[in-house]
Amino acid sequence: MVTLRTLEQPSHGLPASEPLEGRGGVKPEVLRGARRRGRGWCSPRGVLAGSPGTEGNSILTLTCLWRHQCRAPQDDSRVVVVQCREQLPEIITRGDGLQHHKQKKALKATKFITDAECHESVLINSTVRLLEGLDLTCAVGQLLNEAVQAQNGAYRIGTSTLLFLVGAWSRAVEECLHLGVPTTVIVSVMSEGLNSCIEAVVSLQVPICNVFDHMDNSSIVYKLETVDVNLRPSGPGLLQEKRDFKDATSQLLSSYSLSGRHAASLKFFKTQAKVETEENIPQTLRNSLHADSFCRKSALTHSRHFNRADNSHGISRPDGFLEQCGSTPKASRCNDLVELAVGLSHGDHSSMALAEAAVRLQWQSVYLQQDNCKAPFMFDASRLLTCCLPGLPETFSCVCLGYVTVVPMSSLTLIKELQDQPFRVILIEGDLTESYRHLGFNKSVNIKTKLDSGKLPEDSAEELWAKSVLQVLTQFNVSLVLVQGNVSEHLTEKCLHSKRLVIGSVNGSVLQAFAEATRATPVAYVTQVNEDCVGSEVSVTSWTSPHDVNRSNRMAILLKTERINLITAVLTSPVSAQMEAKEDRFWSCVYRLSHALKEEKVFLGGGAVEFLCLSHLQILAEQPLNKENNACSGWLPDSSSWMASSLSVYRPTVLKCMASGWHEYLSAVMCNTATRPSAVEASTCIQHHVQKATNSGSPSSYILSKYSKLSSELFHSGISDNLELVPRVYDTVTPKTEAWHRALNLVLLVLQTDNKKTETRGI
Amino acid sequence: MSRFEAKKPSLCKTEPLTSERVRSTLSVLKGILASCYGPSGRLKQLHNGLGGSVCTTSQSSALLRNLSVTHPVLKVLTASVQNHVSCFSDCGLFTAILCCNLIENTQRIGLTPMKVMKLNKDLLSFCTSYLKSEACSCRIPVDFSSTHILLGLVRSILTSKPACMLTRKETDHISALILKSFLLTIPESAEDRIVLGKSIIVSLKGQRVTDSTILPGLLIEMSEIQLRRLLPTRKSSALKVALFCVSLSGDFSNAGEGTVVVPYQVSLENAVLEQLLNLGRQLVSDHVDLVLCQKVMHPSLKQFFIEHHVIAIDRAGVTLMEPLSKMTGATPIGSLDTIASTAYGSVKDLHSARFGSKHFFHLIPHEATVCSLLLCSRNDTAWEELKLACQTALHVLQLTIKEPWVLLGGGCTETHLAAHIRHKVHNKADDIVKEDGYSQAELLIAAEAFCSALESVAGSLEHDGGEILIDMKYGHFWSGQAASASVVSWPDMLSRCGCGLYNSQEGLSWSFLRSTYHPFAPQACLSQAAVDSASNLIVDCFTAKLSGLQVAVETANLILDLSYVIEDKN
Fold first, then answer.
1. pLDDT tens, per residue, chain B with 570 residues
2. Is the dihedral angle over the CA atoms A254, A257, A263, A268 positive or is it negative?
3. For the region Disordered, what residue ranges are annotated (chain A) (predicted)?
4. How many helices (H) and strands (E) in chain A?
């Protein structure tokens, strides 16, 4: 009985993770943490104060409450599952997404999932991958998995927050139940509490405005340092600013290498630090400025004139736009992509640098397409894809305009020939095999073919079909076939002989991008091809130079065409086992940035939002319930129930329990970012600040005014003497609040469930 | 070989209800159902234990569908409740709990089944005639010119399903949408017979509930790429529609039995494709603008249509066929032969619509009696529950057109009805007994059993150990805190009655529901002013509740009447 499904190994084949983790042995010890650093690694029981010793083997406390649903360990498979659960909270406490650049290395520890039977192991460091690797068969586990999948499907980020809060709040609920609070009251007060928190944290939203407005100016400087021209080839049609700075004969590529990018970020940090030290506004004035900017935020941010004037002012300065921050409160808005990206990187610099470069590249390609750029630019993540090349050094990672994919080395000569001139392309939506029929076509079984003359035809059906396909390709002078599904090997070879390249398993959005750029129409069968279906002016270059890829017998090529709205992020890693994780991290950066740009607002991150929720709930719990307005009983499904009148008795208890969930979150983040070595110390520190915040009367303005101090105390223990070096951290808005909602929904759903189902069997 | 086996004799059991096993399983079933009842009811997880999706529910329809009962007595019960739910959607739990209560109570009183059945029937007829009479004060006439009562009805249905996980704001939003979609299905010009349209629930999981919305016309989901390819061919006037229910995929799966022998080099596929293209040519020459197909369309045919500026949509799905036909006036075409010109229909306009991550093709009819309710919910299990609740609400609204009354909810109807029956039996026992074959004492015993069965349905609304009271003026249901049993001032402890009509400051007196109170005549007339002033009334569907009452009593009678269970063991 294999209870752990092994995840797929990275597809581009170097040998897997042998040197990193010994083979798993027959023991049912399944999930192991890679203990890289003693400091960042907390034992589950240390962090989970809720269930010391008694119920270590449950998924969160969620199943503690309903532990009868999970059977006792009986056979090996059960043992495996239970052990997985024991480890679950550990991961939950770690993957929190609040990390900083400075502590990068002490962050998310990677985990292994090892299959006891197959001796295969997989390296994971994301919630989704973790749940994919675990086999949660009980109903609560299934619900948890569903919630995580739903969050991942909708936003691709926020799953770790979700998982953590599920754990924290289920402990809070358990506490409430111990104190005798009726279920219905817990449900209504907690939903009220969360909604109230979400209303409160609106004050920590930072509007993002016009990040692309001054991009062509600010990016010139940036590009001069960062455009990398040595290895990567490129097609024509490049950005005008670039043309003049390297020799025109060398084929430029609009790609950004990592090494250069770091320099830019560092520069950014320095300028920011300088600005902040120059800021000599008295504290009181600053406070009032903060309050002011938040009250009238909407009026200011939506005023285009205001922003325009601002920008031009900023740009005219030699040091860039940052000077303007001196005159407006720094939390009031974010109008620079670099600042935004750095804030959203959460410690993962290299991935975010790539993501940011991808956004810039898409903006540039869209900007160039629109002659008189009218429509506001919207980043479209569906036009971005990744190409993983394990075995290459990290510095090779870059983003390119066009489609980078891997082809076998046997195509090398063909690629070289095609490199010289643009060629024509067709796009096939289905498989390119003889037996392929479109979806919904049912093949009949009762049809037989009769041979008239008694002698067999010369060619097989496959051969005949391949010939007819080649004929079509020849007729329309097509040199490239992009196929969404599989391709018959026989045909690929035949095409190679006649100097035509066939690429299978192409993503649908790639086909769409080529269809738009070349005016080709995707078809299901080659027989459908007519002149209107064929696209033209596609060019190919080899992306990697042949001498550094011969190990894997495959090479990467770049296909592109004029005005194509498609970007490939090429991810490289010397350790192939890290490839999948690297890809996941890249995508989470992309989606963080994408959601922030789409919503045009971000939260002040680094724990500020959670800290405000915590203080807000504390204040709410101490406020007496006003009987007249009775806003609270509205949360009860049945306002005539006795619980409506006794709500005021239970409400503070429930809110405090809920606040302890936030507390737990913050202290786990502090432990993980290694600012506080022990949970106790972290807890004291949080307590101290919450006390101050609640005493100040308005926690949100406390946070705003003390932001850098707070974030340094809470999350940057080492550098607290140099406050101004602390860069701003941002968080996405809707993905985060939705993760909270989902977590609470799940906890409350399970809370309201009693355990009658098992008894019902066999009535 | 089984034929040669000797037949086993059938197993015959007498008086199934006297068996302890039957009684205990019946009480387990009752416990399960009663624990689900009402807005603070507990949820049940239905899960097959091997993985797969989990259904979290407290609705009778989902629950009974997944409960595998084996004993014939329970099968009778669940089958009749399921039958009731399939006809009326609502009040399934009420029916089932009342039926269980009746069986338990009447067994306890020790009268012969014949007498009990007769008495139950009479008591039921008292109830129905009271509920249908003008004097009934737990019935409110529905004023269709205002949304007050109708919204209350929908909201009551939604709040009684806690697994929907709705907050108050979300409940308001969804209630308004449901009511709107119901109103959209009513045709504007009413002839002698009104045919209601249809509202189709479109799933949009993973979004916020407040993102739910309603659109007139139909939505067909498709990929963004498909949509982009279709939309350039768009025209402003009305579009002529052909609707196919036959597959246009170009296969020949309906070749029938036997084997077809085809000479070499004859391609059946090409022949069928040629036939399809002929069909396409006819459609083009008939100036059809939009071809809708329930099943799959051959890519070549689609390409042909696009080249001729005809919009082709396939895979509409069987559920959309009836509303599509209704909306466009097109007759579904079931063959590839020539098409009669009468088969075509038309739509007013079409658009693309994007909601969340999904893309839709939006067909707008000339006269909107078909609408699409886009229902969002954060998680799958809550969505399923919400969908069921919305369907129930829509059905209940339709039932309310036929019988434009609602009953007071929140347990008030049950307690009021019980008070009414008690009073009637005590004061008019002589009149009742005169005509029938039972004694006055027997009537009193049976009425007590009947009334306490009703009251204990109302009592099932409480799940957290609270105390239930009845007031001595209106006979309404009140909920109070258990610890405060000795409290002096009830008016301060209680807020409003179950349905929300009366508040506790009206100089009422209360009695515990579980203790016996002296029979009194609950106030007969319901003042319209009270109804208008109450802000959040909890009301139930009249038709469904009345039917539930009848089904419960009749099923209980049927089960009480069972004297033999004969099981065929072969």
1. 556 778 888 888 888 888 888 889 999 999 999 999 999 899 988 877 666 778 889 999 999 988 888 888 999 999 999 999 999 999 999 999 999 999 999 988 888 888 899 999 999 999 999 999 998 999 999 988 889 999 999 999 999 999 998 888 899 999 999 999 999 998 887 777 888 888 999 998 878 899 999 999 999 998 888 887 776 655 667 889 999 999 898 887 666 777 878 877 778 888 889 999 999 999 999 999 999 999 999 999 999 998 898 989 999 999 999 999 988 989 999 888 888 888 999 998 888 888 888 899 999 888 878 999 999 998 888 999 999 999 999 999 999 999 999 999 999 999 999 999 999 999 988 888 877 778 889 999 999 999 999 999 999 999 888 888 899 999 999 988 876 556 567 787 788 889 888 888 888 888 888 888 888 888 877 888 888 887 788 999 999 999 999 999 999 999 998 888 888 877
2. positive
3. 1-26
4. 28, 16
Q: Give the closest residue to A441 by CA, choosing from B300, B227, B279, B229.
A: B300
DSSP secondary structure code for residue A556 in this structure: E
> Which DSSP string corresponds to A94-128?
H--S---STTGGGS---EEEE-TTT--EEEE-SHH
| Inter-chain residue contact A641 with B303, CB threshold 8 Å | no
**A140, A640, A749 member nearest B497 (Cβ):** A640
Q: Which of B302, B298, B278, B300 is nearest to B290 (CA)?
A: B302
Residue A456: strand, helix, or coil: coil
- Asked if residues B409 and B470 have their Cβ atoms less than 8 Å apart, the reply is no
Chain A, chain B: beta-carbon pairs less than 8 Å apart: 231
Residues of A in contact with B47 (CB under 8 A): 138-139, 142, 757
Q: Scan residues 10-69 of A and list those with Cβ closer than 8 Å to B.
A: 69
A474 vs A477: CA distance, rounded Å: 5
Contact flag B42-A738 (C-beta cutoff 8 Å): no
The span from the CA of B48 to the CA of A274, in Å, is 62
- Cβ–Cβ < 8 Å for A329, A289: yes
The residue to which tokens 């490289």 are assigned: A572
Tokens of B272: 């069928």
Contact (Cβ atoms closer than 8 angstroms) between residue A529 and residue A472? yes
CB A174 within 8 A of CB A65: yes
From A153, A442, A525, residue closest to B253, measured CB to CB = A442
| Residue A417: both structure tokens together | 């020939």
Give CA–CA dist A688/B268, Å, rounded. Answer: 81
> Which of A2, A468, A506, A642 to substitute to test the interface with B, most B CBs within 10 Å?
A642
How many CB atoms are closer than 10 A to CB A266?
Answer: 10
- Residue A316 backbone dihedrals phi, psi, to 5 degrees: -65, -20
- Contact (CB<8Å) A637/B466: no
Cβ separation of A642 and B480 shorter than 8 Å? yes
User: At A418, which helix (H) or strand (E)?
Assistant: helix A412-418
DSSP track, A632-648: TGGGSS-TTSHHHHTHH
